[in-house]
Design a protein that fits this description.
heterodimer, A: 111 residues, alpha+beta, 3-stranded antiparallel β-sheet, two-stranded parallel sheet, B: 905 residues, 6-stranded mixed β-barrel, globular
């Protein structure tokens, strides 16, 4: 099954990907594919505005480096602020999913 | 060492817009290429691998645009931060640099603050008095209607009679509104001490013309403004607060005006007043049309609002057309050849001009204030020249440092920012200090300003004045910031060309000398102007006013009508009062007059002499016995005595100037004259008084008739019946006649507690504060102050340049000393240098003074603007300053040991 990814969620996933180390855009895409077994339905291009926006917010830092095929590539690393953001979002997400699943698994009582 | 500018360049290029798009393209392309490569590895053809990569990516166009937009906003934000950072850094650096040279900083700030403060203070006066519109709606449409009469000074023109007021108002189409008022002073008693306070009787229509608004109650009704109606009063906001404590139930309360209980019907909005007359009580004028043909007393000040699109000139022409109809309408008042004989003609003046005293050819307050602003602007220029010179010296000292920085790649723009920040800091601080100075200066100006200066109550440091101060500082700040930038261009070449020099670069010295010469010439202009005003002041002081003012106390006593209705009662009171005054210890003689000399002009009436072909409007003065003696005015013949008054004798005194005009070369004693404005009786001349310049020290001797206060019984007289308000003059044996005031006050209170003593002044004060004298001394004081500042600043400037030169030439002077030059020769050389610069400045200054002091013409008295004596004197003063300023540096130069030739830089 494939799922659509919401904007905020994509940010969180990207931050998570980067928590493993510096990656360029395609690297992040590949990491997500592998980790989720390609279950996420997302246009690959949408990753870039998201990355640059997070750079503007100071969550990630971009630096030019050299890619595996020897081309200039922009590598992103998580900043301290980005790490904190990731932690916050993960917590919120956990609470959210717990609440939603509690609601969904609730047994009909009276009424 | 080059990494700073390099990094800067790289940063800039990285942030260029085209670079953003390129980077984004490269990033996205890499993604597509890597994806395609991966797909190819699974066996797809390159073409379809590419196609599939693009499909998975989505709209490249869309994501590219989005990403670029985000990067663009990052770039903008970073730029903002950088500028902010640079400003903060530069400010900190400049501040540190300024604090490292505290003497320079303090001197520069104080000098500029003085200039900015002085200009702001004068601008405040100009703004409050001249530039700000009058406090009425559409003030530029307001006019005053006067009548000019030959022999009557401009500014003291006649108003309107009942007849002309009513007829013009009805027949003219040039006006949208029309109202009359008569400014006066009233005795207010009852609640608290009796006081004489400014008031006006006004027509009900006047409030509409001037656009009055109420805060309480209402204005007069037309019924209340008609003859015979019970009087009601409208209060100013200020007096409501001050005398009645802002009583919320003031409406309907009864107050005592001239001892008559009068109900209050309204309170006006704050600040509403007649122009140039502090008006606290407004009573209905109650003009009686039935009296229009009784006389032609032109005593009502008439204010009008011009009809749309009508200019004052057109309105005046309109009124001129109406004048010939007056005799037909009012045969008694204007009959015969009255109009031709008086030569009277209507005048329509813009109200603003009347307020500023700028009607006709008179020099109004506006001209004086503009001139003073010009003067203090010159002071500011001189201050700027000083600071510019200081800046140059400073730039000199830092030349090496800056050249090194330039050589290391610091950019011109960067250095410009540095200089600008520094000078903005300097001028900004100076501006703050200057505004404080201006605040104090305005208070000082107000304290020394003549009471005749209009709109004094409106004077306050306003937003306009603050803007002015900020504007002036910004301009000077910019100027000082730019000077070293222009100069730094030279510094690049300087460093390249020479390391150390024996003498200062010729061109740089030229700039410095030019500044000093400019200062000296400006100072000369100001000194010349101040000197001319001082001469006028001395000339005015030397004028024989005809009055011996020393040891004379003057004051006003006005008897309220309600308590002294009977003419005999007034006379009895006045007689008793004079008797008791003369009985006071320290009093020689006392008398009284209806019109104190030099205290503003009362009315005049047309007077003709028996067997005389010339008449004219001459001041009508009523006197009590003792008046001439008290003021030391000699009388040939006799003055009316108490017994003459007792029996209503017809003897009057005339001034010598009038005698000479009415009966040239003949003996006036025993001749008869008549005021045909007031009608019979004929008076007999029993005395000729020495001349008095009662209308102003700069005016010719007054041609006056001194009438006895009691008129002879005569049929057809319509002049004033008696004088309730008299100015008393008391000659004392005291050096400080004002010490007598408490005695007089308590004596008056004993006689009648409801009668206040007002306008208590010594006669000398009256003379010194008379209009021309006050204006001259005020202008002189301010110009003198400006000239003094100019002189001081120029002296400092000269000293600075000479001292600097001596410092720079130490080596050369040392050589001279080593070669046997004498101490006096070296000292003379230095002094001469200062004198040479000053002489050039003086020559230029004289040219400037000749061109500029002409604008003083109308303010001068008995001295021409190009007065050679003044120019010579002030040149001398400047030369003295030049010598004084160079003495210390000359001494230092003379003490230079020859060994300095080797040591100096």
């Amino acid at each position: 099954m494939k799922v659509d990814v919401l904007q905020g969620t994509l940010d969180m996933l990207v931050l998570k990907a980067l928590s493993w180390g510096a990656m360029h855009g395609y690297g992040i895409t590949r990491w997500l594919e592998q980790t989720t077994d390609s279950a996420l339905q997302v246009e690959e291009g949408s990753l870039y505005p998201a990355l640059h926006r997070m750079a503007k917010r100071g969550w990630v830092k971009a630096e030019w480096g050299v890619s595996e095929n020897n081309r200039r590539a922009k590598y992103y690393t998580l900043t301290t602020a980005g790490r904190q953001q990731l932690r916050r979002e993960a917590q919120t997400w956990e609470v959210f999913t717990r609440v939603v699943s509690t609601v969904l698994s609730a047994q009909p009582t009276q009424a | 060492m080059n990494w700073i500018p390099d990094r800067y360049r790289e940063l800039r290029s990285r942030l260029r817009p085209e670079r953003i798009a390129d980077d984004v393209d490269e990033e996205l392309e890499l993604h597509l290429a890597l994806r395609a490569a991966e797909l190819e590895a699974t066996g797809l053809s390159p073409a379809s691998a590419r196609e599939e990569a693009l499909r998975r990516f989505g709209s490249v166009q869309h994501y590219r645009a989005q990403t670029c937009a985000i990067d663009e906003s990052i770039r903008r934000e970073r730029r903002r931060m950088e500028i902010l950072d640079a400003v903060r850094r530069e400010t900190r650096q400049s501040l540190r640099a300024l604090l490292r040279t505290p003497v320079f900083t303090v001197v520069a700030v104080l000098t500029l603050a003085l200039g900015i403060g002085a200009t702001t203070a004068i601008f405040t006066l100009l703004d409050s008095i001249v530039l700000r519109p009058l406090p009425y709606p559409e003030p530029d449409r307001l006019v005053q209607i006067n009548h000019a009469v030959p022999g009557v000074q401009e500014g003291q023109e006649w108003g309107n009679s009942i007849g002309s007021y009513l007829y013009y108002g009805e027949a003219s189409t040039s006006f949208a509104g029309w109202g009359a008022a008569s400014a006066t002073t009233l005795t207010i008693s009852g609640d608290g001490d009796a006081e004489r306070l400014g008031a006006a009787t006004a027509s009900e229509s006047l409030f509409r013309v001037l656009g009055a608004r109420m805060v309480r109650g209402r204005l007069f009704t037309p019924e209340e403004d008609s003859p015979g109606a019970d009087r009601v009063v409208v209060l100013s906001h200020e007096i409501w607060q001050a005398r009645y404590g802002g009583d919320p139930d003031i409406i309907g309360r009864t107050i005592h005006i001239n001892a008559v209980p009068t109900p209050v019907v309204g309170v006006l909005e704050p600040g509403f007043s007649l122009p140039n007359h502090e008006t606290h009580f407004w009573l209905p004028l109650q003009m009686d049309p039935a009296r229009a043909d009784i006389n032609a007393h032109m005593m009502f000040t008439t204010y009008a609002r011009l009809a749309p699109d009508i200019m004052p000139e057109a309105a005046q022409a309109d009124l001129e057309r109406l004048v010939p109809n007056l005799p037909g309408l009012y045969p008694n008042a204007y009959g015969g050849t009255w109009i031709e004989r008086t030569g009277f003609t209507p005048r329509v003046h813009a109200l603003r001009d009347v307020v500023l005293g700028a009607t006709g050819d008179r020099a109004g307050v506006d001209r004086v204030l503009w001139m003073l602003l010009g003067a203090v602007s010159l002071v500011l220029l001189i201050a700027c020249a000083n600071v510019a010179n200081l800046m140059l010296v400073r730039a000199e000292a830092r030349r090496r440092e800056l050249s090194v920085r330039a050589a290391l790649g610091a950019e011109r723009a960067h250095m410009a920012v540095h200089y600008l920040t520094e000078s903005m800091l300097l001028t900004g601080t100076a501006a703050l200090l200057g505004i404080l100075l201006a605040f104090g200066g305005v208070q000082l100006l107000l304290a020394s300003a003549p009471a005749t200066l209009p709109r004094l109550a409106d004077v306050a440091l306003s937003a306009n004045a603050l803007l002015f101060a900020i504007g002036v500082s910004a301009v000077t700040g910019l100027f000082f910031g730019l000077v070293p930038i222009i100069r730094s261009a030279a510094d690049f070449t300087e460093l390249r060309e020479s390391g150390r020099g024996l003498t200062v670069s010729r061109r740089r010295q030229l700039v410095r000398n030019g500044l000093v010469v400019g200062q000296v010439s400006l100072a000369l202009v100001l000194l010349a102007a101040g000197g001319l005003m001082f001469q006028s002041f001395l000339n005015l002081r030397a004028v024989q006013s005809g009055v011996e003012g020393e040891r004379v106390l003057t004051f006003n006593v006005t008897l309220p009508w309600a308590r002294y209705q009977d003419e005999a009662a007034v006379f009895r009171f006045q007689q008793q009062f004079v008797e008791r005054l003369e009985a006071l210890p320290g009093v020689d003689v006392a008398g009284a007059t209806s019109s104190l000399p030099l205290a503003g002009v009362g009315g005049c009436s047309h007077t003709v002499g028996e067997d005389s072909t010339t008449g004219g409007c001459v001041p009508t003065v009523f006197v009590l016995p003792g008046y001439f003696e008290a003021l030391g005015i000699g009388v040939r013949g006799a003055a009316p005595s108490w017994s003459d008054l007792e029996r209503r004798a017809d003897g009057a005194v005339i001034s010598r100037a009038l005698a000479e005009r009415l009966w040239p070369g003949q003996d006036p004693l025993g001749r008869r004259l008549i005021s045909f404005q007031d009608g019979p009786p004929w008076y007999t001349v029993i005395g000729v008084a020495d001349d008095v310049r009662a209308e102003g020290l700069d005016q010719p001797p007054t041609q006056a008739v001194y009438y006895p206060v009691r008129r002879p019984d005569a049929e057809g007289y319509w002049g004033p019946e008696l004088q309730r308000g008299m100015g008393f003059v008391v000659r004392t044996t005291l050096d400080r006649p004002d010490l007598l005031t408490p005695d007089v006050r308590s004596m008056l209170r004993e006689m009648d507690p409801e009668v206040p003593l007002s306008l208590t002044r010594t006669m000398e004060d009256v003379i010194m504060s008379s209009e021309t004298m006050a204006r001259t001394s005020f202008t002189m004081l301010l110009l003198g102050l400006a000239a003094f500042m100019a002189l001081f600043l120029s002296g400092v400037g000269l000293y600075g340049v000479i001292a600097y030169l001596v410092g720079r030439r130490r080596a050369e002077i040392g050589v001279r000393m080593a070669l046997g030059a004498r101490v006096s020769e070296v000292a003379r050389m230095v002094v001469l240098q200062s004198v040479r610069l000053t002489v050039v400045g003086i020559v230029l200054g004289i040219v400037g003074a000749l061109a500029l002091t002409r604008s003083l013409q109308s303010l001068l008295y008995d001295v021409v603007p190009a007065d050679p004596l003044t120019l010579v004197l002030v040149s001398g003063v400047l030369l003295t300053v030049a010598v004084l300023a160079s003495i210390v540096p000359a001494g230092r130069a003379a003490r230079t040991p020859p060994s300095d030739a080797l040591r100096a830089d």
